[in-house]
Amino acid sequence: MKELVLFSLNKRFRNRMTVIMNLLLMVILGFAVHVDRFMTAEDTIIHLDHSVSRYHQQFLILNHNGLRYEAGGEGEIVLYYDDGWFIRSDRKLDERIIEEIRSDIVRIITGEYYEKADLKTKGYIDEYNKIILTEINTEEEEGKQPWIIISVVYFLILSYSNLIANEVVYEKATNTLGLILTSVSEKTHFLSKIMIAYLSLFVQGAVVMLMMTFWLIVRYLEDRLQGLLTFLVRIMPAETVSSVMETGSGRLLIIILLIMTGVLSIQTLMLIFFSGFTNSDDTGTYQGPFYLAAVAGYYFLLIKGTAEFFSTPVSVILSFVPVLSMIFMPCRMSVGDVSWLEVTVSLVLSVSLLAVIICMGMPVYRKRILNDRRK
Question: With contact defined as beta carbons under 8 Å apart, do 201 and 152 qualify?
């Protein structure tokens, strides 16, 4: 089995198309790490209300990286005074922007009092240094949307679900399957295909991690990641950045295991089902509806997949259903608190189903392969 697995992995990762795709992925990751060099995020515009008209000139001459002021009380973000300083916004503002605006207010008012330069005004300066800016956020709360997890899972499903099944069909079409089965048993061939599917995911993931590590080291040597981090803070909500940073290694490992177990279950089912096919035209006829259903499910979850959706009883039940749990359980973990007991039960059920598929599918696979050999 070892030689068969190594031969298949060597053939898969050293063929011309795989090399080209990995080189292209290397370029894409390099672009992603240097995205701030190619894209410029739009400045955040703070509209000044008439209630702060006496300070308009001082605000307009301020120069910030990514933040500027404009006169006029109508806009997405409005700064006004009403027995206190307030900023009204149609969306959730980053804390960094709020702090910069507060600092500008303090600086302008402090400068105004300093012009008088007497002891009394110094007391006012101390008072205004304690100014608190209250944000009024008018955006309706939509909840977290775990679109990253959904996209990754569906990318793996669409890319790798039929990988080993197509390989068996290819071996039949090129008359190499019979030659292989003269050296190994049908059982060994079946288990080797499952091992190849697992190692393919692992090796490709390791390759991507090495590429990403390389580019992050390059960027760190350039500017210690300051430019990239500044860009991400400007275009992404602070909650998204913090939730990614707060994901523990234990939860990340569970998510990876759930996803890999689900993908392996789909691959094994596809391998058993398509083991009786002899040409790619027949497999394409049956794979088409599967891809359409997967794409439809992907867009449905992108539209409906809010925190409220993954908290419904139906989503909770589906998070324990093997295969479907590789989507619903990680999404539940990303939008709310899930007990370790629930996570463990979901993972055990997924692994158990994979074991059942392998045990019950092996005789079916062996029968279909033997029937093909007799023909």
Answer: no
